[in-house]
Amino acid sequence: MRYLPLTPDDRAAMLAAIGVRSIDDLFEDVPAAARLKDTVDLPDHMTELEVERALSKLAGKNVPAGSVPFFVGAGAYRHHIPSTVDHLIQRSEFLTAYTPYQPEISQGTLQTLFEFQTQVAMLTGMGVANASMYDGSTACAEAVLMAARVTRRKKAVLAGSLHPHYAAVARTTAKYQDIEFAASKPDLDGLSGLKELIDGETACVVVQTPDVFGRLHDLGEIAAAAHEKGALLIAVFTEPVAFGLVKNPGEMGADIAVGEGQSIGVGLNFGGPYVGLFACKDDRAFIRNMPGRLAGETVDADGRRGYVLTLSTREQHIRREKATSNICTNSGLCALAFTIHMTLLGEAGLTRLARLNHEAACALQDRLAGVPGVKPATGAFFNEFTLRLPKPAAGVVDALAARGVLGGVPASRLYPGAGLDDLLIVAATETNTEADMAAFETALREVLR
Amino acid sequence: MSLNTQGRPTRPEVSADPGAYADTFSGSRGLDQAEPLIFERASFGNTGVDLPEPKGAKTRLGGLERENALGLPGLTEPEAMRHYVRLSRKNYAIDLGLYPLGSCTMKHNPRLNEKIARLPGFAELHPLQPDSTTQGALELIDRLAHWLRTLTNMPAVAMSPGAGAHGELCGLMAIRAALEARGDARKRVLVPESAHGTNPATAAMCGYGVDSIPANAEGRVDLAALKAKLGPDVAALMLTNPNTCGLFERDIIEVAQAVHAAGAFFYCDGANFNAIVGRVRPGDLGIDAMHINLHKTFSTPHGGGGPGSGPVVFSAALAPFVPLPYVVHEADGYRLVEQAEGAARPFGRLKGFHGQMGMFIRALAYMMSHGADGLRQVAEDAVLNANYILASLKDVLSPAFAGPCMHEALFDDRFLKDTGVTTLDFAKAMIDEGYHPMTMYFPLVVHGALLIEPTETESKDALDEFIGTLRHLAERAKAGDRERFLAAPSLAPRRRLDETAAARKPVLRWRPAPPASAAAE
Known about the structure:
The structure holds 2 protein chains of 2 kinds. Chain A is of the alpha/beta class. Chain A contains 15 helices and 13 strands. The termini of chain A are far apart. Chain B is an alpha/beta fold. In chain B, helix 5 (164-181) crosses helix 6. Chain B is globular, with a radius of gyration of 26 Å. Chains A and B meet through helix 1, helix 2, helix 3, helix 4 and helix 5 of A and helix 1, helix 2, helix 3, helix 4 and helix 5 of B.
């Protein structure tokens, strides 16, 4: 077996050195009834070529984004990732390192985390950021729990246009923390009636922009309404590229900003692993209540600058049941991919990338709005918008797929039974060509004919 | 995992003499090159990505255009390449040497798995594409689920948890849902003193009080103490097996019976599954739920802290409560179930989309490479390697418990008594010898613990070198070579770092220097 270096002679010599007759002697603590005599009922080992062949066959049954005109978003976006990113994250020293608990021999990981935290703070317009969460949805759930700790209140108000997965994860994660949830209607606006839900018991108001329908919101007013009642504003995003062009959470008065970092450096990966971004105000009470790891600057015994994991008295390995979260493993390598891609983009590249995305979406909306029966349903948007179709969007998406076009996400998949069946959520990015858009338009005309 | 309440933060003396590092003008020392932060390079406005010129069309942003600069620097491609390659060289890695972190299972990461995960048919799939366009991906999830169920002899598995701790949350939430479904509100979760910190933290997140179970003199759960604590308000026992002392819980079947007799559920922390994979099936031990760290036992790379993946296998009693989404195999293919249907009573959703697909691919490639025969050999070699280390060091280090261990060897600090050298000093001296330290000061039940997990992917030669090094260090400590240990490491990219200062005045990000004339914020 190619991954196992011990030879039969080694094993014999080692058993002799230990002073036992066979390997079974080392498993003697296992109750006799639970000792498997034989191998489990699964295939035996395979060569590298055989594994590659078998799994390539499975990969071949899928329709990857790059092979067809592709416009699917709603929480994950297709962007071009520079080849440098994937090369660097496969450096052995990054890929096969553990969590940087021994800082003297982990400065590579620690310095990149410090740079990552700084970039996330700058991008979101917040004071500080942590070293990542599993994904945007879990970052959002942790933000709700943190807001409850900071405000010592137990009510969370969710916008109806918060990604439904995020809302579901928040409700599930907070289920046994006595947190009461209230939400505005899941409609295209998602904010109507939201302010009325905020009261003196409210810990946080959770609003996404661009929201799950692609719509941009000015959070200023809702931030003021939240703050007036002593509640925190949690700004959620699933498309960080937007902040190359539009106001970020910090500029609009958010107290905590959380979201999905997948768009920058990570790729689609059928939903994971992604990277949760978590940022908040630079406030002592906030920082002490943050979940997850934090890298910080310090000096070594020679007075040289270096980085360590810090404020770990918040974390489970020190605080156990009193920790701010149970998270241990985070999304380190995806955070590295994010930070490398962000460094390559720089502000100049990010701004241009954002503009290209927005222009692609505008061009696509203009095209599709010309298809009979199709009506744009989103006012202000970034790179994603919603269309109202003359028939249920789920069937339309399947019919488009049959014509070789992946034409977005039916709102009914995210909000079943909410009366949003005629809405189609469509994303466009810098990866879409004119030909892709023309193919989409043609296919949509055929399907709706 | 190496810090805990016993691990004292290091507060080294800052030497007035800048030492050897002042010897060079650049701050570099040969191949150990100094590298500033990206923010400290004159790189604002630069970019390493060529993009076409936007057309300059009118925007539809509703007046929400950003007005302020973000301040993000950019580097061209050659500069970025050099920055990150230089930084990478300041890391220890499994590809560089033995990584004996107990409880972490740092084993070889096959590159075949990386290659497969990057096939466009997997990497370029969007989670919300129609099922008809992702049949191969859904089949892969289903196949991995089958391997996990078979290896554990458990009837159900939840695939979505993002890592081990997330899996624990999944397991305990299912337990709480099952208890509530039978109208049985319970208040407490029992956790051994030797448990990972995630266990009590998870129990607290599920709204349970945590009760500690002491260990007996043999490093295992004290069965009598456990039975005394069991009662009608106990929801679950969370037990790691093999436990964090590297020992198999001999009484585990009796433990399970006692837990079940009290109407509680038995959660197993599967962090140490590597020791028994292919040889023991948790379902045969009476376990109701167990998470499996794909980034440990099934070798998905640890990536400097993640991502991981923590599927949870469930007994029949808990199977109906498995969270959304999950994959079902029907006559016309595979289907992703995203809303509750049929008799299922999912307790909710733990993560956006469907789980850590990239990790699923790597783990399945790893499993198929080993097969049923190879996985059994994995457990045997992991246990053999750990016992070889234990046997080869027992005369110079002090084993915490008598008898053979499973996949990790645990020592305490008695061998350092009267040397003036602590576990921490000893571990830091290993760095100068070219090794990553073992897990220190964990588990908490052993004084000054040193927990060594070599894994099965180390050769006998590699083990012999490691053993030789530790024997040498133990002898130096006993010979009174204290100064060398207190100064260690002196050959790493950094010497001991001041963690106390880092926590006292946290600097968590770079900030531009304020203009000389500007008042402080």
